[in-house]
Structure formats: structure tokens, C-alpha cells
Specification:
Bound molecules: FE2/S2 (inorganic) cluster
Strand order of the largest sheet: 2-1-5-3-4
Structural class: alpha+beta
Number of domains: 1
Shape: globular
Mean pLDDT: 90
Radius of gyration: 13 Å
CATH superfamily: Beta-grasp domain
Oligomer: single chain
CATH class: Alpha Beta
Low-confidence stretches: none
Length: 110
Amino acid sequence: MSLKKLSLTYIDEFGETCQADFNNHEYHSLMELLFDKYLQDWGDCKGRAWCGTCHIQLHSDRNLEKMDINEENTLSNITGRTKTSRLACQIPLDSNLDGIVFSILKDDAV
Ligand code: FES
């Protein structure tokens, strides 16, 4: 049985559009996928929703898991927060993310 290859698109901090391929549940979270394969300089707190370095802005309308209180608190301390901001470490890496588009925002957590 072959698995369908999933992919997503992100716009990095330099404005470059990039594609990331992944398998369903290959990593625990979206942050872990990008940290391991594409972006080494984020995810400082290793997914605890504390640091804000995995701040992203979603451009796709998806029903993602609701924010918990830790994610909400960290995002509330980020100056560049947008209406569709999320922490990538709090988003499970599953097939729901296939085709999603988002921007990487530099963390400005205080
Ligand atoms: S890795 Fe620190 S908030 Fe996501």
C-alpha cells in the first residue's frame, strides 16, 4: 500500500515561497516537521508553546484544533500577532494540513 504524499506551502521570513512534503502523523506537530527538515532556527522551547519562535500566519481556511490557554497566552505577548496567527508547535501534523498555505513570522515575544 502506498501512502499519498502530502504537502504544504510556507512563505519564509525572506518572502520566499517554499514547499514541504510530509506524511500523515510523520511528526507530532507542524513545528517539528519544519524544524527537522527545513528551518533550524525556530522552535526554541521544543513545542511547549512558551517561546513564540514558531509563530505562523495561516492563509488557508481550515478547521484546525482550537487554541489552548498556553498558546493563547504566548500569542498575546507577540507584537506581530494577526487574526490568523498560530503556534506551529500546537498544530498536529495530519492530512488536514495538506495544501495549506502560511507565512513564517519572526517571533517578537516579550
Ligand atoms: S516551539 Fe516554542 S512556542 Fe512553539
